[in-house]
Specification:
The chain folds into two domains: 14-24 and 261-360, Beta Barrel (Lyase, Ornithine Decarboxylase, Chain A, domain 1); 27-249, Alanine racemase (TIM Barrel, Alpha-Beta Barrel), CATH 3.20.20.10. Helices cover 30% and strands 24% of the residues. The protein is built from ten helices and 17 strands. Strands 1, 10, 11, 12, 13, 14, 15, 16 and 17 form a nine-stranded mixed beta sheet that branches. The chain has an eight-stranded parallel β-barrel with strand order 2-3-4-5-6-7-8-9, surrounded by seven helices. The longest helix has 24 residues, at 193-216. It is globular and about 70 Å long.
Length: 368
C-alpha cells in the first residue's frame, strides 16, 4: 500500500518512486568522504563536517559511521541544527555562529547539559549573557572567539580586542575559552585556485597572528578552526590550524563542482518529463524543489541540455535531440546543495539504482 501512495521503502527501485524526489548517491558520498578525511589525516587536522549543508541526522550518522575516528564531530550554523544532532546522539557539536536572545540562550544552556557544545562570540555583552544562561541551569560550554579574516560578517576585527575578550571569557566558571574561529566564506567560490590560495593565506596570517597575541598574553589556544570546501587544503596546511569545517563536499552542486571537481555531485532531484516539445521539455519540479540562487541547475548525464527557466512547479530545459518522451525520468543537479536540502522534508539514500535509506531532513524549513 505504501508503494502505491508514493512513500519510499528500502530496496525499492528508483523507477518506482514518485517525483520530485531528493536522491543522495551513497557511493559518491563514500568517495567524497574518503577524499576529505584523507586530506585531514595528511595535514594532521580534525575534520568537523558542517551540518548546515546536510540538515539530516540520518546522513550525519551515516557520515560518522563511514568516517569513524576521521570524522571529528559536526558544526552547525543554527541552534535548531545542533538540537537535531544531539537528539540523534551526535553530541560533539560546534555552533559556528553567535547565539543571542533570552529564549535561544536558554535552549543553548539546556543543550550544553547533554552535549559537548561549543559556541562563537564576538562581543562582551554576549559573553555575559551566555554565562548567565549557563549558570541558571548549571551547565558549561566551550567558547571560541570568532575572528573576521576578511568576510566582513560577524567576528572580532584582528587587533587589540582579541586578548581582552579572551580574558573576559575566562572570568566565568561556566565558560571555557578554547580558541579561535576564522571562516573565509567570501573565498570559497573564487574560480582561480592560485588566487583562492593567495587570499586564503592572507587571512590565515591574520588568524595565526591572533593566536600569537593570545599565547603571548599567557592564554593557551586549544582550537583553531576554519576553512570550507573551497579552501580546506590551504587552511589545513597552515601551521597552527587544528581543525577544518567543510560541509558542501559531501553533497556538492553544479556551481561548487566547477570549483572543486574532485568531489562528486551526489545530490540530485529526480523529476518526470511532464511535457515534451521539439526543442525543449518541462519537468515536474520547479523552484519549490530546486534551489537556483547560485545559478541554473544541470541535468545529470545530459550535458547538452540547458535549463533556461524555473517556475514554482516547472523547469524548462532546452534540448537538441528527441530522445526523451513524456514520463521519462531525469536527475537534476541543483546549483546550491544547502538551500535545496532546506526545501525538502525527506531524502533518499540510493545505491545501484535502489533505495538503501529513507531519511527525514529534520532541520529543513527551520530558521531558529
Amino acid at each position: 500500500m505504501s508503494s502505491l501512495l508514493g512513500t519510499p521503502r528500502i530496496g525499492q527501485s528508483l523507477s518506482d518512486l514518485d517525483t520530485p524526489q531528493v536522491l543522495i548517491d551513497l557511493d559518491g558520498v563514500d568517495s567524497n568522504l574518503r577524499g576529505m578525511f584523507a586530506g585531514g589525516k595528511k595535514y594532521g587536522v580534525n575534520v568537523r563536517v558542517h551540518f548546515k549543508s546536510l540538515k539530516c541526522s540520518g546522513l550525519a550518522r551515516y557520515i560518522q559511521t563511514v568516517g569513524g575516528p576521521a570524522c571529528g564531530g559536526f558544526l552547525c550554523a543554527k541552534l535548531n541544527e545542533a538540537e537535531v544532532l544531539a537528539d540523534a546522539g551526535l553530541t560533539d557539536i560546534l555552533i559556528a555562529n553567535e547565539i543571542v536572545g533570552t529564549i535561544k540562550l536558554h535552549r543553548l544552556a539546556l543543550l550544553a547539559k547533554r552535549s559537548t557544545l561549543r559556541v562563537c562570540v564576538d562581543n562582551f555583552d554576549n559573553v555575559n549573557a551566555i554565562a548567565a544562561a549557563m549558570e541558571a541551569v548549571g551547565a558549561s560550554i566551550g567558547v571560541l572567539i570568532e575572528l573576521d579574516i576578511g568576510m566582513k560578517r560577524c567576528g572580532v576585527e584582528p587587533g587589540e580586542m582579541v586578548l581582552p575578550l579572551a580574558r573576559h571569557i575566562q572570568k566565568f566558571p561556566s565558560l571555557k575559552f578554547l580558541g579561535l574561529q576564522g571562516y573565509d566564506g567570501h573565498l570559497q567560490q573564487i574560480a582561480d585556485p592560485a588566487e583562492r590560495d593567495r587570499r586564503c593565506r592572507e587571512g590565515m596570517a591574520l588568524f595565526i597572528d591572533a593566536r600569537r597575541q593570545l599565547e603571548d598574553g599567557g592564554i593557551p589556544v586549544e582550537v583553531m578552526t576554519g576553512g570550507g570546501t573551497g579552501t580546506w587544503e590551504f587552511v589545513a596546511s597552515t601551521p597552527g590550524i587544528t581543525e577544518i569545517q567543510p560541509g558542501s563536499f559531501v553533497l556538492m552542486d553544479s556551481m561548487y563542482n566547477t570549483i572543486r571537481p574532485e568531489f562528486a555531485c551526489t545530490l540530485s532531484i529526480m523529476a518526470n518529463v511532464m511535457s515534451k516539445h521539439p526543442d525543449y521539455y518541462v519537468l515536474d519540479a520547479g523552484s519549490k524543489a530546486i534551489s537556483y540562487e547560485f545559478g541554473m541547475p544541470t541535468i545529470l548525464g545530459r550535458p547538452q541540455d540547458k535549463v533556461v527557466r524555473l517556475a514554482e512547479e516547472h523547469t524548462k530545459v532546452e534540448c537538441t535531440d528527441a530522445s526523451l518522451k513524456v514520463g521519462d525520468r531525469v536527475r537534476v543537479i541543483p546549483a546550491h546543495c544547502c538551500a535545496t536540502m532546506n526545501l525538502h522534508r525527506v531524502c533518499i539514500g540510493v545505491r545501484d539504482d535502489a533505495v538503501e535509506a529513507v531519511w527525514p531532513i529534520e532541520a529543513s524549513g527551520r530558521y531558529d
